Every structure is written in C-alpha cells, then in structure tokens.
Amino acid sequence: MIKNVTVIGAGLMGAGIAAHLTNAGTHVTLLDIPDNSSHNRNNLADQAVSKLMKLKPAAFTLPKNANLIKTGNIDDDLHLINSSDWVIEVIIEDLKLKKNLYEKIEKIMKDNLIISSNTSTIPLGKLTEGRDKKFKSNFFITHFFNPPRYLRLLEIVGSNNSDSKFKKDLIEFCDNKLGKSVIDCKDTPGFIGNRIGVFWMIVAAEKAIKMGLNVEEADTVISSVFGAPKTGIFGLLDLVGLDLMPHVMSSMTEHLDKNDEYNLYSKPPDIFDYMLENKLIGRKGIGGFYKLENVNGKKVKTSINLITKEFSESKKPSIQSTKLAKKNLNKFLEIKDKYSEYALSVVLEFISYTLNHAEQIANDLLSIDNAMKNGFGLASGPFELMDKLGKTWIKEKFLETNIKIPKILNNLPEEKFYKVEDQKLKYFDFISNKFVNLNRPNGIILLSDIKKIREPIQKISTASLWDLGDGVTVFEIHSRGNSIDMSTMQFLDKSIDTVSNSYKAMVIYNEGPMFSAGANVGEALFLGNIGLETELVDKIVEYGQKVYQKLKYSNFPVISAPSGMALGGGCELLLHSNFVQAHVESYIGLTEAALGICPAWGGCKELLSRFENNKNIPNGPMPAIMKAFQTIGLAKTSTSAPEAREIGFLRSEDGITMNKDRLLHDAKLVAINLIETYVKPEKLTYRLPGRTAFAALELGLKGMFDNGQISEHDKLIGHQIANILSGGETDMLNEVDEDHILKLESNSIQTLFKQPKSQERIEKLLETGKIIRN
Amino acid sequence: MQSYSAPLNDMKFIIEDFLNSGAADTLFKQNDIEIEDFNFILDESSKFCEEILLPLNQSGDKEGCTYENGKVKTPKGFKDAYKQFVESGWQGAALDQKYGGQGLPYIFNVFFDEMITSSNMGFGNYPGLTGNAFEAIKKSASDDLKDLYLPKLATGEWSGTMNLTEPQCGTDLGLSKAMANPQEDGSYKLTGTKIFITGGEQDLSENIIHLVLARTPNAPKGIKGISLFLVPKIIPNKDGSLGEENSLSCGSIEDKMGIKSSSTCVMHYNDAKAWLVGDLNKGMKAMFIMMNGARLMVGVQGLGMSEVSYQSALYYAKERLQGRSLKGAKKPEMSADPIIVHPDVRKTLLKMKSLNEGIRGLIAFTALQVDVAKYEKDKFKKQRADDWVALMTPIIKAYATDIGSESANLAVQMYGGHGFIKDHGVEQFVRDARIAQLYEGTNGIQALDLVGRKLPMHNGRLLRSFFHEVKEYIEENTFNYNLKEVIPHLMKSFGRLQQATAFIASKGLSDPEEGAGPATDYLRMFALTSLAYVWVKYIDISNRKMNDDPKGFYKAKIATGTFFLNKVLPETGALMSSIMSGASSYTKYEDDFFESSFS
User: B4: helix, coil or strand?
Assistant: First the structure.
C-alpha cells in the first residue's frame, strides 16, 4: 500500500503531481534543490506550493490538501525518502543530472522503496545505466501528463529487472487512488503518448504552414477531423508551451532510430524560431500563436499570420465542409480544396506512422487509442479513426500518395480493427494477427461498451434506460448538454415505473462531458415566449417536482453517479437520489439564480433539510436558512466532489470515485449493497419562521444592494428565494411538509420567469454561453 | 369599372382611435406634428392619387413601357404625374428632416403607398424603392455619400433601385457573380449583369441611384463575400450637379403579365464607377435594411390591390341589375334587383372588406413599431418593437399579397363574363396583383423566413412581442361585458396558434422538414389570428364610441368585425388540422408517384 510519497523536483509538473497525490489523501514530501540565495533553504519547494494554491484550473480538489505537503531540499532532506513508499523524480530532462540524483538515492534507499522517473522521452535503460540490481528492480517510469489532476493518461514503463509486485502496487495506486488511465508501455523514446502525439502535432503544424492555411483554419480542420478539443493544433501548442517543443524534438531524434520519420521534422519551421526568440511561447507566457491584446480597454484575441508574422484580430473561419467531416469523413477528405488536402495529408502521415511503429511501442492497439484519447483529448484514437475510414479506402489512399502500406494493415483480415461478435467486443491483436476479446480490468464497466452489444430496455431521442445486470438499471441522459426537457422528464417518469415493476435499482449515469446542465431552459423560455405559461408550470415545473418526488420515494434505491457539471435541475437530481457516488471531478451547484430564476424542482426544500440536519451548522432555524440562502443566492458551484461535500450538495455518506472509468462499477456495487435492505426515506417536515426570517434575509439583501454588491434584479431574485426558504406564510409553531415548499418554489419561479431581465439572462446564456449581470 | 375613393375614414380611425391608445401620440410629438396636420396631408395625398394617378392606370397598362436604344419610355402622362409628385414633396414626406425630408411618421408612408397602389400600382413602383434606398444609404454609407445623395433622393429628383438578382441567382444570392474591383481613389469599378431591376431605367427622374450587390476580388465564397455598392446612372459632381454618364446601360425590358407601366430592366454594368456602402462583405446586412422595408411595402401593395378590387366589385354589385332577391323584389321599381341582394355576393364583398380593414390596422400597428424602435429609449420596449417588426414583416408581405390576389380574382368573379373583358379594368387587377406574391422573396420564402428564422430566433423572443401583447389583452378583457361575444373567437384561434407554434418548434428541432412543411399554413394561421386581435380591438373601441356615431361608422365597424370573426377566422381550425397531422404525407411521397397519372 502506498501512503507516503516523495516528489523530487518542484517545477510545474512536480508540484502538480504532488498536489494530485494529496487529492488522493496521500502525504507528500516535496523536495527541490536548496535555495542558497534565501535564508529559507526550502524556498523553491515552498514557493511551488504557494503557486499551486493560485493555479487555475485548481490543482487541489480542496485548498486544505496543501497541508498534506511537507517541503524540503535534496541536500538536507534526501533521507526523508525512506519514510515514503514511493519516490518520483520530476527534475529537468537531463540524463546526467538524473543519473547523479539516482546515484545519491541508491546509496541511502531502503529495500522496498519504489522509485520512478516522470521523464517524457528518455528510455529507462539509459536512466538505470550503472545502477545496482536493487535500484533497477525498484525503478519505473511513471509519465504523467500536464496538468496532472486533469489529464487522465499515465504511462508506466518497467524493465526485465522490475519487481512485478512493485509494478502491480504502482499501477493499482495510480488507477484507483489517482484515478489515472494507466498504460503499460514498452521502453521506447517518448513511450506511446508523446511518440505518436508529438508526431501528430508537429506534422499538423508544419503541413498547415506549408500548405498555406492560417492558424484558425488549421485549428478548425484538425479539431473536426480528429475530434480534438477546439484548441486544434496551434491552440494546443500554445497550451503545451512552444518552448518545450525543441527539447522534446531533439530528445526524440537523439534517441530514435536514424530512419525514424521524426528525422523528417528535425528542423523546426522558421516561425517557431521567430516565436521562441520573441518569447511567444504560449499561454504561460505573453501568448503564442494566439495572444490577448488590449484594444481600448477591451481584451481582443489576436492570432499570428504564419507568413508575415504579424498579429491581427482572430476571426473564426467559416469552412462549410468541416460539417461534412463529422458526418462522412471519407467524403470530406476527398474534396479537392486546401482544407481537405491538408487534413488528408495529416491523417495519412499520422496513421502510417502509428501503424509502422505500433508493435515497437505498444502491447496492443488499445493502449495506443487510449493514449491519444486520454493524453491528447482526441475523441477517437488512431485505430478508431481508421475504423471510420475503412481499410480498403486507406490502402487506396496510401497507394495514390506513394506511401508504403504498413504491415499491420496488410495483416488485418477485415475492414476494421474493432468488432462485435457473439455479443462480445473484440479487437485485432497485431502480435498474433487474430481478433481477441476486449476484456476490461476488474472494477471497470463502461456504458459505451454495453451500448455496442446490447439494446436499451427503452429509449427516446434524449435518454435511455439500460439493463446493467443483477437487477440494476442505468438511466442515461444523452441530450445536448444532457439537459432535461419535457420529454426526458416524461421518460424518467416512465422509467421509474419500469424499474419499480421489473428491476431492483436505478443508477443515473452517463459518459458525456457533463452529468447534466439542468433543465432545458430554452424550451421553457420558448413556451414562456408564446404565452404558454400554464404549460410551463404544469408540464415543466410542477411535473418535474412530481417526478423527482416519485424518484426519491420509489420502492427501489436510486444512485446518481455524476461526473463533470451537475447544475440546476441536474443538481436537484442528485439531491433527490438516495445515494450519490460522485466522480472526483464533479462540479455541482444550484445555479438558477445566475439565470434570474430559482431552484424549483425541489432544490430549495432538499438543501434546507440537509442544512437543518448538518451537525456543523448551529442549531436553531436561522443558521440553516442562512446557509441555504447563501448557497442558492450566490449560485455556489463546487470545483470538485470533496468541495461539493463541504458545501453540502453531497452527504458525508455519499461516495467519491477517483477514476472515471470505475464510476459505474462503484455505483453498481452501492446499488447491489442497498437493494437487500432498502427502505424508502421518510417524508420531510419543516418548522420554519416565516415572515420574521424573511424580514431578516430582506435586510441582508438591502445591505448588499446599498453597498453595490448586487443589482436591483439580483435583489428581486433574492427576495423570491428568501420567501421560499423562510417558509412563506408560516411560523415555528406550524409544521409544514415538502409540498408546501414545492408550492413556494413553483410560485417564485413563475414570478421570476416573467421578468424581462431574467428572460434576457437565459437568452444570453443560450446564445453566448455566458452569464450576464443585469 | 376601376372605382376608387381613398379609405380616409378608416385611416383616420386607425390613427385617432386604434393607435392613439398606444405610442402614436408620443410619436407625433417627437417630430412636432399635430394630428390635424397629418389628416390634412392625408387628404391632399389622396387627391393626388384619385385625380392624377387613377386616370392613368388603365391607359398605362395598355400602352406599357417601350424600349429603344437603351432608353425606356414610360406611358403617356407618367412624366407629368411624376413631376407633380416631386413638386408636391411627396417623396420626402416620411423621410429624415436632416436630409430634406418632412419627418412624418412612417405610418404616413404606409397609407400613402396603399393609396398609390390602389390608384396605379405600376406608377407606384418608381418612387416606391427610393425611400428604401434612402434608408439603406442613411444607415450604412459614409457621410460623404450621405451628404451628396440623400437630399436629392428625398426630393425624388433622383430615384433609387435595388439590384440583387442575376440570371443565375435569385433566392440564393450567394451565387452572385457581379464583381467590383477597388480603385486607388477608394472607389470601385463594377462589372456584371443584373435582372428584374424595377425602374432600372426610365424617363421620370433626372438621375437613378442603383444599389448593387457584388463581390470583390478575394472575397469569401457565398453569401459572406457579398458587398453593397452605390452606382449612379450619372456621376454627380461634388456640389450635386450632374456630371458625366456612368458606364452602365439598360439592355432590355421584360414583357410581363402585369404592372406593364413599370419598367423591369436588364442592367449591364461595365466597369461602372461604384462606391462601397457599409462594410466590406457585409452587403447582405445593408441590403436587408432595404429589403425589410421593401417587404413591408409589398405587403402594403397587396392591401392596395385588395382595396381597389373591393371598391370596384362593390360598384358593380350595386349597379348590375339581374334577377330578384330570394325574399321578394327589393327594387320593384327597377327591371331587376342589383346583385348585391344575393347572400353569396354580400358574403364575398364582406370577406374583402373585413380583410382589408383588418390588414390595414395590422400594417399600421407594425409601421408604428418601426418608429417606436427608432425613437424609444427604453431597451426592452425598443427591443419589443424591433422584434414585432421582424416577426410581422414576412406575415404581412405574404398574407396581404395573397389577399390582394384573391380579392382581384373575386372582383373579376363579381363582374361575371364582363370581368374577363379588358374594358372594365378589373382583369388588370388580377395581372397586377400577382407580382406582389412573387417579388421581394416569394410568399413561400416568407413562410420559411417565419418558421425557419423568426420562430427560433433568440429562443422565440420575437414571438413574445406578439403572444404577450395578445395574451395580456385577452386577460385584461376576459370579463369585459362588451366583448363577451367576440373574445372567445380570439381566444380560440390564439390557443390554436400557441399549440401550433409549440408543435412546429418541437417537431422542427428533430426534423427540419417537419418545420418547413406546414410553413405556409402556419403563416396564414398567424395572420388570421393577428387580424382577429385587430378586429377585437376595433370592436372594443367602436363599442365605446357608439354614442357619438352620426355616420354609423362605428356601427358598421362592429358589424364588419362580427362577420370576420364568424366567417373568416374559422379557417384557422382547418389550418390547425392540417398542421397537426404532420408533413409526412408529402415529404415521404415518393418522387415517382408525381408522374403516376401519366407515365
């Protein structure tokens, strides 16, 4: 079991790894070289920790995790490694320096200390040259991707000398505790991710320059062809940092075979040199291919002209054909214009390189697809991309462009690398040249796998209900933003009946980029606009309340398993679940107030009840009301699952899963455990102060308004929320039930929905994705 | 016989009673105009239409325009009429005072154009586009261009045209090929051919200012690479005097079904000197200002044609003696009763009349919103007015022109075989009214604009301007005793429209053809419901004016409205059934089936 870890090297990467280790509850010792210029010899490590606190996106899931880091310097504190179970070296990519450090470690290390390097390019064999047997057996490469909290890929490399138990421990820890998607790599330069990924980047960048595309055009094409994030290629280079490229490239060419295709790109494009000379290294510096400039007090995004090197306002290109790329990639790549010709040449070079070196760098094609998806954010890996195109088509294109057809492609007996046979997922094993079963490790269930082999129990265009076996079902939302519209709510209603009659539990889960953005406010706004407020109330607000109540008080356990954003109505779904198993990266909040409305699917009543029962909140009616008022009024949103627990969206008994791939399995286990003994919760009752509490909250609002902290409209929203939380017309002698508060929620949202400024907020959110203050 | 007296009573009712409760009052004050002055100007303008234009309508149709050596000759009498039009200052009546206009509310334009169309639609097209060209230049052009061109356009000494269509590009303007090459002095040289150019060449105004869509070298492909240019027939000197002729010509004129007195030209631009209006590649934005105004005005033409058709039909229904009333002779002293005694004849006349009065109110209310959007300071009120205009423009354009055509045909029907004889002049209405359903975007395109663009825009925000207006009115008047017979009609068709809107919006999201399929039905339903709203308000106002009604105007209003609500509005029920049954019966109809009856 790994409980204590030492990280050596407190640069951006080392510090980031240290922070993420604390997110897993691990104690960390962070060492760097002593700072002789300061009276504090640990200055470098200390500074790194304070920088971590300010990092955006946050490195810590909770700020207090920083307390788990102990700092030091390698001259005075290297001996501390022996109170750790694992030491990770994250110093600069210099073989000599690394070897020096290892020599020192070798001298003092205990027998069972696991050692690893975070090198991105240097082969393990070179690193352990001259080390003794024990060191070699304990030594691995663990290659994290930046930022370590957020990028899921972790490459692990061992050698023939490696201790297999240590390797197992390490993989298990990185997978379960750090939540990484761990790939066992061969000891080759750049492993899988950088070997293939950096090649992809450099090819995409150079070809764009050569073929006369501008920065935005290249980014748009790359993003739509490869399903890459919007950053495309040049935006990605800005994110990674252009300054890293020469190091990576020279390290690659140094260690790679002289015939390797990397050598074709050993001389970087002129513009790279120009940009490095002018410190245009990317987002961490003054900007890169894109740069924010101040024009009349406004920030304007500019981009560099790849030929003239001048910056001008960045404009989104309109390339009609990229829509085709998503629908029919083959057809898009056959268009005779510079965009398609560019895309085709990048695709062919990328897949040819992958196929030529796959055997050399990976045990199977799954690792390669996984590395490109989890390390570079591509929607599909190279083999999945090839499956879209088909073997015959690819071979034809290779022939047309005089590219030698790679062996693996000739060996592939069918059109695609993946297939479903006898209700089993299979993939082509390029070592045995046969299709083999795709078996996920224990503890991993993916809905995407299930979808390939099974039909849902029932489905509509925005949601489906799946059978997960053992009486457990999965309710999956798959609308845009996974928002909940009227038909989805009807489907949930129907699904509750289905599960109640024929199954034993429901897990609410999906594998989209977010759990749920909440109610489909566009639909609500449209109904409001055409004057159908009665339908809005009947079919959206009050019907939604009814279905969520039905969900909560059904005769089976409901387990929500969120990952990503769960906002508004999505958050209320969690609040009405009997248990929540959340992925650590869950961003939860009742954000209605930001849109000028209020929670009205029971969010207010649930949060109020939780705060009343929270032992950390003082007794008496007011503290709970105040806390709920602040949480809802300020639209507080958690930046992690642990923070959601601190705010109160998750209960202390709700679970957190670090590895997203394990979330569904964990939720299913919870469901199975609950099924046997499940009793539905008791109905909630409240004693609320009514008018007196309302007056107190109003006073607070007035103060904030007078101080200019909130707008007139914010005050109006606050007024409505205050009315709900104080209980409306009631007093402490009176016990009210959930329906009483639900009615207040419904009344308030009706009032707020009619406000032109609320409508303006919703409209702007839908059109620009931005929250406005008015 | 072409019979026409301007419907001044109705127009004054709209101004004084119907709109006065709204923002009209403030609007008049904005430009220092008294309602009395407005009414006086209206009277004068109606005389011009009845006395000068109407007598030239049939002769103009018969003679048509003639083309010779690049010159176009308008029919006899047009030149003088245009001269009088300019001298009386009619062109600038509703234009900006800063550039020589008189700053009347936009409603004046709408009323005046209706009267011009009723009297002589062919003539009306010459000055018709000048006002829209004025607005487009004012909104988008540089100050130099504005100072040089606007004053002359405001007087009508120079006229304006809009040049969009090319032989290969009609609705899809992205296919435009006309090319403008930049010159060192900042101007351009424009080359290309434009067709269907109304008033592209004529012998009425001393200069013609063409607004032309063209692309520049290296402009992006399609609609995003189109710019708008100003190309004068004669290049003016800096002081506004006429200089040398520009390098452009009229190649021929079209031989058309109707509006024969209006010249429809093929224009050739051959390195013609041109100036950019608005931003490069933003031509559609600038042109839309002109087009939206033009679309509304085409709707007004529909109303004008429907009004003159109605009056001519009424004239004949009272004159023509045939047979006897089914309930015994009404005019025993005569050889027969006039045909107006027959129920079906009365119904036909009332259908035309009630539609005309309703449409007139809807157009006037919309014209008022054009001015509100211009002058209002409150953000949300301004937005609401803008939204109303954007929403109602396709509805008015398509529905009013459909009715214009329908009424013209009904007028021919009223005349029986005599309607088919040219001498009576009503067959001309059928030929003239037809074009309004086609130009400025066919009515099918208007329906698609409504369903495909206006409905989803800002998540239905444009709809709010209409639906909330009507809903609030219904809520306020649910217990209005005077309206107890009429409000239920409005509620019923309004409810249908809400349901149809929600249905189309949700269907259209998953399948665009399900949205586009019922577009025409939906537009018609929307128009009828809007008219129901206008009529209920008319009746409400008239009820309150009954005590002071010497001429029986208000009594007639209530009677006409009652007819409309009971006999015309129920069409929304049929439209509803058609819409709600979806589009699959024709979208899924196999292509081969269309030929099943003959091949």
Answer: coil
- The ranges of chain A with pLDDT < 70 are none
Query: In B, which residues are within 8 Å of A762 by CB distance?
Result: 459
DSSP state of A539: I
Same domain, A702 and A668: no
- Whether residue A169 is found in the same domain as residue A227: no
Q: How many CB atoms lie within 10 A of CB B350?
A: 18
How confident is the model over B171-180, as a mean pLDDT? 88
Strands B234-236 and B179-182, sheet pairing: unpaired
Contact A690, A730 (CB under 8 A): yes
Task: Decide if B22 touches A, using CB distance below 8 A.
Answer: no
Taking the C-alpha atoms of residue B255 and residue B518, their distance in angstroms, rounded to an integer, is 34
Query: Does residue A712 sit in the same domain as residue A650?
Result: no
Listed as own residue / partner, the contacts of B486-491 with beta carbons closer than 8 Å and 24 or more positions apart are B486/B535, B486/B536, B486/B539, B486/B561, B486/B562, B486/B565, B487/B536, B489/B532, B489/B536, B489/B565, B489/B566, B489/B569, B490/B529, B490/B532, B490/B533, B490/B536, B490/B565
CA separation for the pair A473, A468 (Å, rounded): 5
Last residue of one domain, picked from the residues A185, A211, A245: A185
H or E stretch including A69?
strand A69-73
- For residues A668 and A738, membership in a common domain is answered with no
Distance between CA A283 and CA A55 in Å, rounded?
Answer: 13
Size of interface A-B (CB pairs under 8 A): 48
Does one domain contain both A536 and A656?
yes
- A-chain residues near B506 (CB < 8 A): 523
Look up the domain containing A401 and give its range: 193-411
Residue A485: closest CA among chain B residues belongs to which residue? B506
Query: Which domain-ending residue is among A141, A156, A185?
Result: A185
For residue A236, the tally of other CB atoms under 10 A from its CB is: 24
Contacts of A613 by beta carbon, 8 Å cutoff, 6+ apart = none
Chain A partners of B510 at a C-beta cutoff of 8 Å?
Answer: 461
Instruction: Give the helix, strand, coil percentages of chain A, each rounded to 5.
Output: 50, 15, 35
- Residue A412: which of A400, A428, A431 has the closest Cα? A428
Tokens of B541: 């106002």
Q: Is A759 on the interface with B (CB under 8 A)?
A: yes
| Calculated CA dihedral for residues B417, B423, B427, B428, nearest 10 degrees | 180
Q: Which of B224, B464, B506 sits opposite A529 (nearest CB)?
A: B464
What are the distances in angstroms from CA A658 to CA A63, A351, A664, B267? Answer: 17, 32, 12, 71
Mark yes or no for CB contact B502/A530 under 8 Å.
Answer: yes
- pLDDT digits over A46-91, tens only? 999 999 999 988 999 999 999 999 999 999 999 999 999 999 999 9
| Separation between Cα atoms, residue A307 and residue A315, nearest integer Å | 17
Count of positions (residues) in chain B: 599
H-state helical runs in B141-170 = 143-155
What's A209-223 look like in SS3? Answer: HHCCCCHHHHHHHHH
pLDDT tens per residue across span B107-128: 999 999 999 999 999 999 999 8
Read off the pLDDT of residues B358-391 as tens digits, 9 standing for 90 and up: 999 999 999 999 988 888 889 999 999 999 999 9
Chain A CB contacts of B470 under 8 Å are: 531
Cβ pair A526:B467 closer than 8 A = no
| A769 interfaces chain B, CB cutoff of 8 Å | no
Tell me the pTM: 0.88
Spell A731-764 as b/e; 16+ CB within 10 A means b.
Answer: eeeeebebebbbebbbbbbbbbbebbbbbbbbbb
Instruction: Please give the tally of structural domains in chain A.
Output: 4
The phi, psi pair for B231, rounded to 5°, reads -130, 105
Q: Looking at this predicted complex, what is its ipTM?
A: 0.86
Of all residues in chain B, the one with the smallest CA distance to A527 is: B502
- A490: contact with B, CB 8 A cutoff: no
